[in-house]
């Protein structure tokens, strides 16, 4: 029985005894006291539960990534829509992005990223217990995780997808870490991958300039070390209209859906509202995750944000009191790769020697849903020789 149920059983059991053995005049006063005591006990239990969002025994021990070969530059986009390299770079920090070719699949780049992460961690794929793929744009509506697991040779792993838009990798990282911390599994591969080039309106300069395709993966192991130091996850469906990719067509699409008529509208975004949301909520959720970890911004070696917009990253760093040279970014080369952005940027930082074993990294994702969250990790991968 959980502590919360034990508390309730004792308190309400005591209340029942009071009803039987005391005069009616005293029952109400006693029961009010009991209710107050119960409320305080529940509040205390909630505080205990909050503290559990810390110190998960899951260590990130390997990293890998993969991006399509095809590059679309800002100048290329200027030939398609009314924009320019200067206009895009100043407002977003993006210079180019990678886009899947017609003969490339999301599952393939996700599997390549996962295989590279396993190689980096020196882990045999057959020993992997769990594969989680965070994506909003799978090749198969039913998900790509099983295809990825098969492709990398993780024949003994359970595999499933998580859909949480640009927060997807962060949510998947915490989910995988919980499985390891519980003792259910020992080794997991967590992949973030998206191909939003499939879903943007290439005539809309407000969105087509932002998104790119890519995948990144992290290998997690339960090594007994609590290397996920703390986390905090949030969502708010009341504001989901600010960033959506809704199903287009009949109000009841399932009734008349067919392969030939089914489809989705392009991504729609209220950039001003998304900016306000990100700069308001992301610093707050990072501070909450740091608090759960028992540390502060001064203890962070690196800040790794979802690679959405340079202005958002600058504002978040400023509100945390961190210099921008502590921010890990590859936004200029890849654009916004949704669930792929955090592991893509981390891979580049690890492989360049920027991130070293033992470094503390504050990671945060945010995006459609609306969803957002942060996780504080200690990097435990192999040292990279210069």
From TrEMBL:
<dbReference type="GO" id="GO:0004315">
    <property type="term" value="F:3-oxoacyl-[acyl-carrier-protein] synthase activity"/>
</dbReference>
<keyword id="KW-0275">Fatty acid biosynthesis</keyword>
<dbReference type="Pfam" id="PF08541">
    <property type="entry name" value="ACP_syn_III_C"/>
</dbReference>
<comment type="pathway">
    <text>Lipid metabolism; fatty acid biosynthesis.</text>
</comment>
<comment type="function">
    <text>Catalyzes the condensation reaction of fatty acid synthesis by the addition to an acyl acceptor of two carbons from malonyl-ACP. KAS III catalyzes the first condensation reaction which initiates fatty acid synthesis and may therefore play a role in governing the total rate of fatty acid production. Possesses both acetoacetyl-ACP synthase and acetyl transacylase activities.</text>
</comment>
<dbReference type="GO" id="GO:0006633">
    <property type="term" value="P:fatty acid biosynthetic process"/>
</dbReference>
<comment type="similarity">
    <text>Belongs to the thiolase-like superfamily. FabH family.</text>
</comment>
<feature type="signal peptide">
    <location>
        <begin position="1"/>
        <end position="17"/>
    </location>
</feature>
<dbReference type="GO" id="GO:0033818">
    <property type="term" value="F:beta-ketoacyl-acyl-carrier-protein synthase III activity"/>
</dbReference>
<keyword id="KW-0444">Lipid biosynthesis</keyword>
<dbReference type="InterPro" id="IPR013747">
    <property type="entry name" value="ACP_syn_III_C"/>
</dbReference>
<keyword id="KW-0808">Transferase</keyword>
<dbReference type="InterPro" id="IPR013751">
    <property type="entry name" value="ACP_syn_III_N"/>
</dbReference>
<keyword id="KW-0443">Lipid metabolism</keyword>
<keyword id="KW-0276">Fatty acid metabolism</keyword>
<dbReference type="Pfam" id="PF08545">
    <property type="entry name" value="ACP_syn_III"/>
</dbReference>
<dbReference type="InterPro" id="IPR004655">
    <property type="entry name" value="FabH"/>
</dbReference>
<feature type="domain" description="Beta-ketoacyl-[acyl-carrier-protein] synthase III N-terminal">
    <location>
        <begin position="160"/>
        <end position="237"/>
    </location>
</feature>
<keyword id="KW-0732">Signal</keyword>
<feature type="domain" description="Beta-ketoacyl-[acyl-carrier-protein] synthase III C-terminal">
    <location>
        <begin position="290"/>
        <end position="379"/>
    </location>
</feature>
<dbReference type="InterPro" id="IPR016039">
    <property type="entry name" value="Thiolase-like"/>
</dbReference>
<protein>
    <recommendedName>
        <fullName>beta-ketoacyl-[acyl-carrier-protein] synthase III</fullName>
        <ecNumber>2.3.1.180</ecNumber>
    </recommendedName>
</protein>
